[in-house]
């Protein structure tokens, strides 16, 4: 049986964000022009009232009051992707990890490329902080929401954002 799917679009300092829920549980957060963004018709019916807790936590995050999200999530992905996404949630606010460090943490030091692919398929950006993953040299590497947004999110979390 297919889940009942709803969505809404909210404003953020990083542009509009589309929130998607399956049976009332957040399953997607997508930016405009995001790589791997599902087609709009897959987001279900519009319901601006179904996302109160997610909107509250995102607002608190963007105002600098919230450092760790506590939302229930329904993430659809392979077991490996799920493991990588769990590792992403363990990266503290304002810090970064390299793809290699995540691969090491997973017990597979040669899996940094696979970690990068799983990172790119993260369906709940910002809340599952894939923006906190950087290249081995410390450089910004791919980000589904664009490198400019990635840099802005990192600067915001480090307290160095220029608005």
UniProtKB/TrEMBL annotation:
It is an enzyme of class 2 (transferase). This is Methylated-DNA--protein-cysteine methyltransferase. It comes from Streptomyces adustus. Its main location: cytoplasm. This enzyme catalyzes only one turnover and therefore is not strictly catalytic. According to one definition, an enzyme is a biocatalyst that acts repeatedly and over many reaction cycles. One of its GO terms (biological process) is DNA alkylation repair. Gene3D superfamilies: Methylated DNA-protein cysteine methyltransferase domain, Winged helix-like DNA-binding domain superfamily/Winged helix DNA-binding domain. Its EC number is 2.1.1.63. HAMAP family: OGT. It is found in: Cytoplasm. PROSITE patterns: MGMT. Keywords: Cytoplasm, DNA damage, DNA repair, Methyltransferase, Transferase. Pfam families: DNA_binding_1 (PF01035), Methyltransf_1N (PF02870). GO terms for cellular component: cytoplasm. The keyword DNA damage applies. PANTHER family: METHYLATED-DNA--PROTEIN-CYSTEINE METHYLTRANSFERASE. Residues 79-158 form the Methylated-DNA-[protein]-cysteine S-methyltransferase DNA binding domain.
């Amino acid at each position: 049986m297919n889940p009942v799917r709803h969505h809404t679009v909210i404003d953020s300092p990083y542009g509009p964000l589309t929130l998607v829920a399956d049976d009332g549980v957040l399953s997607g957060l997508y930016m405009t022009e995001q790589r791997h963004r599902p087609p709009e018709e897959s987001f279900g019916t519009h319901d601006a009232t179904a996302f109160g807790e997610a909107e509250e936590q995102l607002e608190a995050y963007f105002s600098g009051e919230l450092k760790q999200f506590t939302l229930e999530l329904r993430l659809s992905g392979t077991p490996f992707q799920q493991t990588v996404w769990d590792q992403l949630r363990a990266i503290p606010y304002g810090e970064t990890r390299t793809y290699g460090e995540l691969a090491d943490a997973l017990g597979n030091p040669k899996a940094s490329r696979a970690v990068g692919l799983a990172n790119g398929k993260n369906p709940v950006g910002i809340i599952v902080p894939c923006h906190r993953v950087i290249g081995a040299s410390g450089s910004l590497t791919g980000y589904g929401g664009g490198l400019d947004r990635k840099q802005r999110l990192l600067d915001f979390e480090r307290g160095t954002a220029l608005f």
